[in-house]
Specification:
The protein has about 350 residues and is mainly α. The protein is about 40% helix and about 0% strand. The protein has a two-stranded antiparallel sheet. Helix 3 crosses helix 8, helix 11 packs across helix 14 and helix 13 crosses helix 14. The longest helix has 28 residues. The radius of gyration is 26 Å and the shape is globular. The N and C termini lie far apart (about 70 Å). About 25% of the residues are buried.
């Protein structure tokens, strides 16, 4: 075992040395541009955890600890039980103890089941660990400790009835937990899509024949929504959440009419349509509703708070660019890296009442 470790260490040093020489060669070819990455910098980026658990750091975390972390750092977006469907799609639900036994989630093939949660689809526990470690929480990615990542992963599996309340997940038992994942046997390469059969498939992804012959007759519409009733209940596009596959039609426009200028429209147009397009483009609407609270206050609430303030536009533009915490609650708003012109347009729209 000692000789194996020594050989592995030697290979690692050889790789880093070769990488440094390659980078040094590039620096020599382009003097004054760049430098070789240090081993510490390489380690800081090399954080992925593979399905065979290569890259998984040593450590552990309990379900009880995971509940504490979840309620303080996760529940605001994902719900107390991982059931959130207002901002983010649900993480937990749809799995059974029978699925834990078979390794295939039965409801994935049940067309009557209303949705697909993360725990229903994910096959490898390493995927959960890796994503939580590198991307969560959304306002401070990579800020969780190794213990907290183990703990949150364990707590999610506890919510899904995979692990008991007193379980402690660690690098030593994570392989055994993998054998309990509800959809661990749900992945397959026996299909015509890339890569297919571990990249050994010699057939193309699409044959382009089914849609060219034996086509069904074009359906004829027996009824349609008349123009006078199209917007009877308000704009459907504003009544559907912006995360997920469901989208509402813009019923303020007649069917078939050309679309309004999209989110790439000039920021000089600061009216409601252009401002709402910018808010959608920069994902502001993931946390702020027009009239209702989501993670943060609604645009209407912000407009009311700063109504009559002489420096409202400048103040709001600064808040958008720099972020903040404490004005609307404990959940912080991170700094937004949007262009200054876009920030001014959004601030002007809010300061003027955040109209539709």
């Amino acid at each position: 075992m000692s000789s194996c470790r020594d050989a592995a260490a030697a290979l690692a040093l050889l790789f880093v040395s070769a990488l440094a020489q390659a980078q040094a060669g590039g620096a020599a070819a382009y003097p004054g541009i760049g430098r070789a990455a240090t081993p510490q910098e390489v380690r800081a980026w090399d954080i992925d955890v593979r399905p065979d658990f290569k890259g998984l750091p040593a450590g552990s975390g309990s379900v009880a600890k995971g509940m504490e972390v979840w309620e303080s750092k996760c529940a605001s977006c994902h719900g107390i039980f991982g059931e959130s469907n207002e901002i983010f799609t649900p993480l937990i639900g749809g799995t059974t103890r029978q699925d834990v036994q078979t390794g295939r989630v039965a409801r994935l093939t049940d067309s009557s089941f209303p949705g697909r949660t993360t725990l229903m689809k994910v096959a490898n526990i390493s995927t959960l660990w890796d994503y939580i470690s590198r991307a969560m929480p959304w306002n401070a990615p990579k800020s969780l400790s190794v213990e907290e990542v183990y703990a949150v992963t364990a707590y999610m599996l506890n919510l899904g009835n995979v692990l008991p309340d007193d379980f402690v997940l660690s690098d030593r038992n994570i392989a055994q937990v993998q054998a309990l994942m509800p959809n661990r046997n749900g992945m397959s390469t026996d299909h015509h899509l890339w890569p297919g059969r571990s990249m050994g498939r010699d057939r193309p992804d699409v044959a382009v024949t089914a849609c060219m012959t034996n086509c069904e007759a074009e359906p004829k519409l027996a009824s349609f929504l008349p123009d006078f009733a199209r917007n009877a209940h308000g704009n459907l596009a504003e009544q559907n959440r912006l995360v997920g596959p469901q989208r509402g039609a813009d019923t303020t426009r007649a069917a078939g009419s050309p679309p309004q200028p999209g989110p790439l429209a000039s920021a000089s147009a600061s009216g409601p349509p252009a401002a709402m397009a910018l808010a959608t483009r920069h994902s502001c609407t993931a946390c702020h509703g027009l009239d209702n609270r989501l993670v943060g206050p609604s645009f209407a609430e912000m407009a009311r708070k700063y109504a009559g303030r002489d420096d409202a536009e400048a103040h709001l533009a600064g808040k958008i660019r720099n972020g903040g915490q404490g004005v609307w609650g404990a959940i912080p708003m991170p700094a937004q890296g949007l262009p200054e012109a876009d920030a001014r347009t959004l601030a002007q729209w809010i300061a003027r009442g955040a109209g539709r």
